[in-house]
Design goal:
Elements: E1 18-20, H1 22-27, E2 33-38, H2 50-63, E3 68-73, H3 78-90, E4 93-98, H4 108-115, E5 119-122, H5 131-144, E6 149-151, H6 159-179, E7 185-190, H7 194-206, E8 211-216, H8 221-238, E9 250-252, H9 265-278, H10 287-299, E10 308-313, H11 324-327
Parallel strand pairs: 2-10, 3-4, 3-6, 4-5, 7-8, 7-10, 8-9
Antiparallel strand pairs: 1-2
Helix pairs in contact: 2-3, 2-6, 3-4, 6-7, 6-8, 7-8, 9-10
Length: 332
């Protein structure tokens, strides 16, 4: 594969650390060796997985001569916060279109969005049909004002953004080689599907047996699994690879709970388990749902004794400071 033809700007502090988690491993029975890939420490505005995607997306925006970026998400979107940070770093204007009624209180990611200089646009989901269309309409308004906008999809999840995680697979393979180990599986949170599609494309391109397990934080398996397959296929096509990824996509929706942005009992437990055993902070509604899946699968004996399993920490800690639902009745 040749990725040299894809422009990239430096936004993330790479490589991110790959750390053993011995106390967490022992807390879960001690048979499986758990490792944590610290993409919460990518360095851009408190970090997170979106920095890898934005390196390619904003390089594409600059290549096209754009001076403004637009994207969308919820009020506590990590992707929106990191897009605002990347835009600030590169001197671009940033517009965030929130699929939500306005929030008066600025906490967590929303506080950071304003600190980073992003312009906020609220769209009541009860009054609109399609958030992508709202972004397109805003882009037309900006063009009329003389701006040159670049639209980034939800989560930065298209074939350009997912390229960041093709690179990430090469990174972790180099780290594994240096350690003299192989990984049985990688477990991670999957929302809009871009991270999973990139990881899976990297796995297939490098012909490694490591399982890529996406833990849905919002969508049903029936919806997310084909989305990941389609996006992964688009990434592979960009790299002139004709592998069909369909049969390699693994998504579980068993940990979604009541829906996106809402914690579960299992996610709250996993959050505390990571904090109290490894001093690692995860958020209660995204990364913690993937952590809950890891905890269950390890305890259920999914992987053989002695296996090395990676939890890919995709970030999101700012949302913890805006989530009153988590703290209510859970201050122990």
């Amino acid at each position: 594969m040749d990725m040299a033809n894809f422009p990239r700007v430096e936004l993330a502090a790479l490589p991110t650390a790959l750390q053993p988690a011995p106390r967490l491993s022992r807390a879960l029975g001690g048979k499986v060796n758990i490792w944590i890939k610290r993409d919460d420490n990518t360095g851009l505005a408190i970090g997170g997985n979106k920095a890898r995607k934005l390196e390619f997306l904003l390089a594409d925006a600059l290549r096209q001569g754009c001076d403004t970026v637009l994207t969308t998400g919820g009020p506590q979107s990590n992707h929106c916060r990191m897009t605002a940070a990347a835009a600030a770093k590169l001197g671009l204007e940033c517009h965030l279109v929130f699929n939500s009624r306005p929030f008066d209180i600025r906490q967590g990611n929303l506080l950071l969005d304003e600190l980073l200089g992003a312009k906020l646009h609220w769209r009541d989901p009860a009054k609109i049909e399609n958030i992508s269309r709202e972004m397109s309409n805003l882009a037309e308004e900006l063009k009329a004002q003389g701006r040159r906008p670049y639209i980034i999809p939800l989560g930065g999840s298209n074939e350009v953004g997912a390229m960041g995680y093709v690179y990430a697979v090469q990174e972790i393979l180099q780290q594994a080689e240096a350690l003299g180990i192989q990984f049985e599986a990688i477990v991670h949170a999957s929302g809009s599907g871009g991270t999973q599609a990139g990881l899976l494309a990297g796995k297939l391109l490098n012909n490694v047996p490591t399982g890529i397990i996406g833990v849905s934080v919002s969508r049903s398996q029936a919806v997310l699994q084909p989305q990941v397959a389609q996006l992964c296929q688009a990434v592979l096509s960009l790299l002139d690879c004709d592998i069909d990824p369909t049969d390699h996509v693994e998504v579980t929706d068993a940990y979604v709970g009541a829906g996106y942005g809402l914690p579960t009992e299992a996610s709250q437990s996993a959050l505390q388990l990571f904090a109290r055993n490894e001093g690692i902070i995860i958020d209660p509604v995204y990364t913690a749902k993937a952590a809950a899946a890891l905890v269950y699968e390890v305890q259920a004996g999914r992987w053989p004794a002695g296996s090395n399993v990676v939890f890919w920490h995709t970030g999101g800690s700012p949302a913890l400071f805006a989530d009153s639902i988590f703290w209510e009745g859970n201050q122990k």
